[in-house]
């Protein structure tokens, strides 16, 4: 953990080409000492197994603080995301150019709503 605490933690992205390109142009791209990037570009040729493996690899890295994932891609591996409960790295679902964000599908938001009653939100 000395490596990540000395340099800070990273944001990782699992997304379509446009999303990953935008974040990479914004400066989030990094390759760790094991030559593993902090992003996964998902296209039509990417299998669900590859997405699952990429997600599992990112959540086990100690240099990742947040994983941004396009919501339509998160839907493909919902069975894994729903059982992931660790606070760090936090998993945040984001929209893509072709797929708008749907709060009803966001597992993190559903869990957060379950923590509060209607009276807590007044």
TrEMBL record:
How the protein assembles, per its UniProt entry?
Answer: V-ATPase is a heteromultimeric enzyme made up of two complexes: the ATP-hydrolytic V1 complex and the proton translocation V0 complex.
Q: Gene3D superfamilies recorded for this chain?
A: ATPase, V1 complex, subunit F (3.40.50.10580)
Q: What is the lineage of its organism?
A: Eukaryota, Metazoa, Spiralia, Lophotrochozoa, Brachiopoda
Entry's NCBIfam families? V_ATP_synt_F
Q: Which GO terms describe its cellular component?
A: proton-transporting V-type ATPase, V1 domain
- Quote the protein name from its UniProt record: V-type proton ATPase subunit F
Q: Alphabetically list the UniProt keywords.
A: Hydrogen ion transport, Ion transport, Transport
- The species this protein belongs to is Lingula anatina (Brachiopod)
GO MF term (any one): proton-transporting ATPase activity, rotational mechanism
Pfam families, per database record = ATP-synt_F
């Amino acid at each position: 953990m000395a490596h990540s605490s000395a340099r800070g933690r990273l944001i990782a992205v699992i997304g379509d080409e446009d999303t990953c390109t935008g974040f990479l142009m914004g400066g989030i791209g990094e390759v760790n000492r094991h030559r593993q990037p902090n992003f996964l570009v998902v296209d039509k040729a990417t299998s669900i197994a590859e997405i699952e493996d990429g997600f599992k690899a990112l959540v086990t890295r100690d240099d990742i603080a947040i994983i941004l994932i396009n919501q339509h891609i998160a839907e493909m591996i919902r069975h894994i995301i729903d059982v992931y409960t660790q606070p760090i790295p936090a998993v945040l679902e984001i929209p893509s150019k072709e797929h708008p964000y749907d709060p009803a599908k966001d597992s993190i938001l559903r869990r957060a709503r379950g923590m509060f009653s209607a009276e807590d939100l007044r």
